[in-house]
Design goal:
globular, 21% helix, ADP-ribosylation fold, single chain, three-stranded antiparallel β-sheet
């Protein structure tokens, strides 16, 4: 992959995001179970919606500053999708979160 994007995205359960407000960092359940937090580039969002988010109604979309995710950010190959995906191998600090928006996968308009 060529130059890495400076903006990444993560889809969080509203409850998990609310819990993060009290501790000043975000930890998705996958950090405990898989060792990292799944993220996506803008062009990867349509595939993520199709494969993982259908039917979800409890989500927020976090827009992240990738430069503030170092040294925990790594791009790792996914056999399922055939692409390198950004994974954060630690909690996401609040200063990396640029914006938070309610997210409904059925209304998403991402062409990549």
């Amino acid at each position: 992959m060529s130059e890495r994007p400076s903006i990444l995205f993560h889809f969080a359960a509203r409850r998990d995001w609310a819990d993060a407000q009290a501790v000043d960092e975000y930890r998705s359940p996958s950090l405990a179970t898989e060792g990292f937090i799944h993220c996506a580039t803008r062009t990867q969002i349509p595939g993520v919606i199709q494969r993982h988010l259908q039917g979800r109604t409890d989500l927020v979309r976090l827009t992240l500053d990738a430069t503030r995710l170092e040294p925990w950010l790594r791009y790792e190959w996914s056999e399922t999708s055939g692409d390198d995906y950004p994974h954060v191998h630690g909690p996401i600090p609040m200063n990396a979160v640029i914006s938070v928006e309610l997210f409904d996968p059925t209304e998403a308009e991402y062409g990549g």
